[in-house]
Description:
2 copies of one chain form a homodimer.
Chain A: E1 4-5, E2 10-13, H1 14-28, E3 32-38, H2 39-44, H3 46-52, E4 59-64, H4 73-85, E5 92-98, H5 100-112, E6 118-123, H6 126-132, E7 140-142, E8 145-149, E9 157-160, H7 170-187, H8 189-196, H9 203-223, H10 238-250, H11 259-278, H12 282-296, H13 303-312, E10 325-331, E11 334-340, H14 343-354
Parallel strand pairs in A: 2-9, 3-4, 3-5, 5-6, 6-9
Antiparallel strand pairs in A: 1-2, 7-8, 10-11
Amino acid sequence: MKSIPSTSYSVHFNEHCYKELNVYLEASNFSKIFILVDTNTHTHCLPKFLSNIDCDTAFEIIEMEAGEVHKTLETCYQIWKSLSDLDGDRKSLIINLGGGVVTDLGGFVASTFKRGVRFVNVPTSLLSMVDASVGGKTGVDLGTIKNQIGVINFSDMVLVDVSFLETLPAEEMRSGLAEMLKHGLIKDADYWNRLCNLKSLDYSELGGLIHESIIIKNEVVIRDPNEHGERKQLNFGHTLGHAIESYCLDNPAMQTLLHGEAIAAGMIMEGYLSVKTCGLPESALNEIKNTLKSIYGSVDFTENDKSSIIELLKYDKKNSHGQVKYALLESIGSCKIDILVDDNLVNEAFLFYAQ
Amino acid sequence: MKSIPSTSYSVHFNEHCYKELNVYLEASNFSKIFILVDTNTHTHCLPKFLSNIDCDTAFEIIEMEAGEVHKTLETCYQIWKSLSDLDGDRKSLIINLGGGVVTDLGGFVASTFKRGVRFVNVPTSLLSMVDASVGGKTGVDLGTIKNQIGVINFSDMVLVDVSFLETLPAEEMRSGLAEMLKHGLIKDADYWNRLCNLKSLDYSELGGLIHESIIIKNEVVIRDPNEHGERKQLNFGHTLGHAIESYCLDNPAMQTLLHGEAIAAGMIMEGYLSVKTCGLPESALNEIKNTLKSIYGSVDFTENDKSSIIELLKYDKKNSHGQVKYALLESIGSCKIDILVDDNLVNEAFLFYAQ
């Protein structure tokens, strides 16, 4: 698959990505290479990754615990300490080998260590391939508020080797698929239709679709890297989705939701808001709801859950002056931003979702 | 005094600075203003500052403990929590009212909260006026390693009201003077001479000299914001000075050194290295030593202290590939960068300092 050039870096694919990495390492004269892994990618991805690196520079492995609950400042602190203890300096390179937690957190750690060292993202989950590792957003959670602390800073390259998906659990594949579906919903009805007709989530058949999703996201990021306008479209489903995800993360009584599962619920609800405020046809909404529910099932919310989630909306990073702003659909493939929505409609969206 | 334009912001002075601030606040439509103070500036500076603000936007005061030992991630965490609890959003403004700890830490907090909100620096110590608040360096210490975590990011404006110096303790005035002396040593022999002949450190007489120091630093920062070259000159005295400061901070047996006191010791020692490697005349070195010792006295180091400090040099942010690089003087007013120095010479520099 062809490399995708972005703002200041490129996304490279499969076998070709290792050639690009080795050329880059050869040319860069790094003092040391630190590879950040989590407990899963240490076992399942690091051996293959290392077998493809051809370079004389010394390297060290730094391991963090796997999972969203470890996307914290405490984990950053441990990694900054390790980098210091292992003689990391400004000419060090950090390679983030993992899912969205590793690439988001590792990008933040790199961007702030000694006021910034260079880093490379090697996403190993579907979610991080099509979303987290492209676009320069780095960060960690603050308590239950997702990505509250971070910076926008671009990696030197992104390497997408879809064979890492071979060992990814099925629910993680579904989670990543939600972001791909979103790309179709906001930008490309034809792409959405092809994803809807997908027969399996086998990684070997997904390659071309992953490539398309990255192209869609990348084009938005290039036009609006700092999210002043168009990039907000990528938040479709995420305003309610993030609040739902935060709420479930913080409430042991709720089922554990993966990011994509929460975003799928958010997209159905925000689809409803789209009908009410942006003219999305009801038929399109039903298509969205049926497709997403057939893949992700349904989450049960009590009245109490609902009001707590609506309360959490105020922490959404897109908001200001106390107003919650949504990215909503005019049609499948077309999205508007900065839409204000009445609280009543949000209540109705929960009811529609539950039906 | 005339405003000084910088990369993307300006430095404004005295009464004029409040006019500029009020125009800026009026034009910016911030959702809320957070003023970060420490325990000292809350008492001594905030009342005057507030009395000069003319603006309808709601504001909140966030207070941190005063002192370098609080320049930590833990303090950042508390402030990020406060910003979240007080409904801070992306359209919030943070005003850092304090010395170097407040402006460095507050700049980092602002640069990373929700991936970055705007901020204004209002330095209240001599050190932060002539150094910390100009140039975009933000950060916090990691354990005893100074400024190990941070980003380069510029404030929207810097407001220098020298009347805040009225309540600054004499040793803090001396500490700030060290950076002004450094500006003379690396860039301007005439400015150095005038500082050497200074009869008192009364704030009302310092205004013009502060203005000159900011011009010197600002010109360097404009030419090399990311410290790839010329900006490293500003590290003269800081390679050994930072290591000495870190060591004293971590060792209760050592006297407490203010930043400028440590940098003064570092400048004498690095003056010695300058003679040995860059052709600084011995007469200039003696002038530097006599001037700095007459202001800052002398610190006693044991053999053990010395070897521990040399060990700490490896954490210096300017280093890479295990090599310590110095900014050293060719003459008073002229500085070279990236100089490698033999460990033996560093030992000799300690001996020269002790004489």
